[in-house]
Specification:
The protein is of the alpha+beta class. Helix content is 23%, strand content 35%. It is built from nine helices and 25 strands. Strands 1, 2, 3, 4, 10 and 11 form a six-stranded mixed β-sheet that branches. Helix 7 runs parallel beside helix 8.
Length: 427
C-alpha cells in the first residue's frame, strides 16, 4: 500500500496519472505505471470473469483476448451505455471502476483533486459522484482544469520562477500550444491579496510533428525545430518570462535543440509529464491542510464576487467570506452554524473584483426569539440557483436541550453579476 492519502489525479481521454503526498517527503511523488513511465492507459478490460485496467488491459487488446473498453473518458461524459459481454454498463460506472482499480494501492484517501482538460458543472458532478462511489465525501473531492493545475504547481515552486510571467508549452503529435501564468489587476482589494490566471496565448498546427513523433526523422525535426523557435520568439515578444515548462509526449524526443537555446536564454526551463497531477496534488494538500497563503486563481469560469458576513472567528471580528471569489458557482453551496449576538438584523456585503462598488443587503431577524448569553444558534445555508442567483437562508436550530428550535426561517435572494465578461475587466 502507498503511504500517501492526499492525491492528485490527472485524467484525460488517453491516460491517467496519480501523484500523492507523503508527510515524510517534501513534495509529491508520482506513481510509476512502468519503469520511468507515469502514464496509465485509460483502458478497461474483462477476461475470464476478471477486470483488468491500464497496461494489462492494453495487452489484452494487443492479443485480441477478452473484452476491452476504450474511450472511457468521452463515453462517460456523454453518459453512454457500453456493452460488456452480455450486459450493458453505464460508461460512468466503467470509468469509476477504472479509477477505483487504479487507486487500489491507496488506503484511507483523505483528499483527491481531479485535473482534467476542461471543467464545467457536468464534469464536476460526475467526478464528485465517482469520489462518493469511492467512499470520499464530496467536500474532499476537487475538480480543476489543466491551466489551474499548472498554476497550483507553480505556487509551490521557488518564487523567483514565477516572479514575472511563467510559460508552459504543450506539444502533441499535431500542435503546440502556449500558456502564460500572469498576475491580474484587482480593484478595491487588500494589497496582500494577489490574483493570477493562466491563459492560452498562442497555438500552431505543425505537420512536421507527425513525422518526428514517436520516431525521430532528422530532416523533419530540423524543420519543426525552426518553426518552434519562431513560435517561441513570437510568444515571448515584449514579455519578461521567469521560467518555462515543456509538457506533452512530443517533447520526449530531443528534436528542438535550437529552440531550447531560446527557451533557456535568461530563464530556467523544465521538461516533464507529471505537472498536472502534481499541481492537483498541491491543491489537495492546500485544501486538506487549510493553507490560505497562496494567490487566488481566476479565469472566465470563476466567480468575481464574494459574499461576506461580519463574524468573530477565533476572537477576531471582521468580514468573513461565506462564498469566496475564485470559486465555481456550482461548487459554492455550503452550510454553517453560528452563535448570534444581540442584533435585530444581519448585514451582508457582496464585494466584486470587477469594480469598487460594494453591494449591501440586509436580512431582518424580526420574529426571532430573544435569548441571552450566546444561546441563539442560527444555521446559515448558501444555495446557488444559477451563476447569477444565490439564495441565503437563516434558520433557528435551537440550543441543545436548553432551547428547542423556534421554527424561525428567513431567506434572502442575492443577484450577482455572473461570470460572463467580468473577468476581462481584470486583464
Amino acid at each position: 500500500m502507498k503511504s500517501g492519502s492526499i492525491l492528485g489525479y490527472d485524467l484525460n481521454e488517453k491516460n491517467c496519472q496519480i501523484s500523492f503526498y507523503d508527510d515524510t517527503k517534501e513534495e509529491p511523488e508520482t506513481l510509476e505505471a512502468s519503469s520511468k513511465n507515469y502514464q496509465i492507459p485509460l483502458i478497461l478490460g474483462y477476461h475470464r470473469e476478471r477486470w483488468v485496467y491500464g497496461i494489462e488491459a492494453e495487452q489484452l487488446a494487443a492479443v485480441q483476448e477478452g473484452i476491452v473498453v476504450t474511450n472511457l473518458f468521452e463515453k462517460a461524459l456523454r453518459r453512454e451505455k457500453v456493452k460488456v459481454g452480455d450486459r450493458r454498463r453505464d460508461a460512468v460506472w466503467l470509468l469509476a471502476k477504472f479509477i477505483r482499480m487504479s487507486l487500489a494501492g491507496f488506503e484511507d484517501i483523505e483528499f483527491i483533486t481531479f485535473s482534467v482538460p476542461f471543467t464545467n458543472i457536468d464534469m464536476s458532478k460526475m467526478l464528485k459522484g465517482i469520489g462518493r462511489h469511492l467512499g470520499i465525501s464530496k467536500e474532499c473531492v476537487c475538480v480543476q482544469d489543466y491551466k489551474e493545475s499548472f498554476c497550483q504547481y507553480m505556487f509551490y515552486q521557488p518564487k523567483e520562477l514565477w516572479q514575472y510571467e511563467s510559460a508552459m508549452f504543450y506539444c502533441d503529435a499535431k500542435e503546440i500550444r502556449a500558456y502564460m501564468l500572469r498576475r491580474l489587476n484587482a480593484v478595491g482589494v487588500k494589497e496582500r491579496e494577489m490574483f493570477v490566471t493562466v491563459e492560452e496565448v498562442a497555438h500552431a498546427q505543425m505537420k512536421e510533428l507527425a513525422a518526428i513523433y514517436p520516431i525521430l526523422n532528422k530532416d523533419k525535426a530540423k524543420d519543426a525545430d525552426d518553426r518552434f523557435k519562431t513560435f517561441i520568439q513570437s510568444v515571448f515578444e515584449k514579455k519578461v518570462v521567469s521560467s518555462v515548462y515543456l509538457t506533452g509526449e512530443a517533447f520526449e524526443n530531443n528534436w528542438y535543440p535550437n529552440s531550447l537555446k531560446v527557451l533557456c536564454n535568461g530563464r530556467r526551463a523544465f521538461v516533464g509529464n507529471n505537472l498536472y497531477s502534481r499541481g492537483a496534488c498541491y491543491t489537495s494538500l492546500r485544501k486538506c491542510r487549510g493553507y490560505n497563503d497562496t494567490p487566488t486563481y481566476l479565469d472566465d469560469t470563476k466567480m468575481m464576487e464574494q459574499i461576506c458576513l461580519r463574524m468573530r472567528v477565533n476572537g477576531q471580528e471582521g468580514w468573513y467570506p461565506i462564498v469566496s471569489w475564485g470559486t465555481h458557482w456550482y461548487e459554492a453551496d455550503g452550510q454553517w452554524e453560528v452563535i448570534l449576538e444581540d442584533t435585530s438584523d444581519i448585514e451582508i456585503h457582496v464585494e466584486t473584483l470587477a469594480g469598487e462598488e460594494l453591494q449591501v443587503e440586509t436580512v431582518s431577524l424580526e420574529g426571532l426569539p430573544d435569548r441571552r448569553d450566546y444561546s441563539l444558534r442560527i444555521q446559515i445555508e448558501v444555495l446557488f440557483l444559477d451563476e447569477r442567483t444565490c439564495r441565503l437562508s437563516f434558520k433557528d436550530v435551537g440550543f441543545g436541550e436548553f432551547f428547542p428550535a423556534s421554527g424561525f426561517h428567513v431567506e434572502k435572494t442575492i443577484h450577482l453579476g455572473g461570470i460572463n465578461g467580468q473577468f476581462n475587466s481584470m486583464s
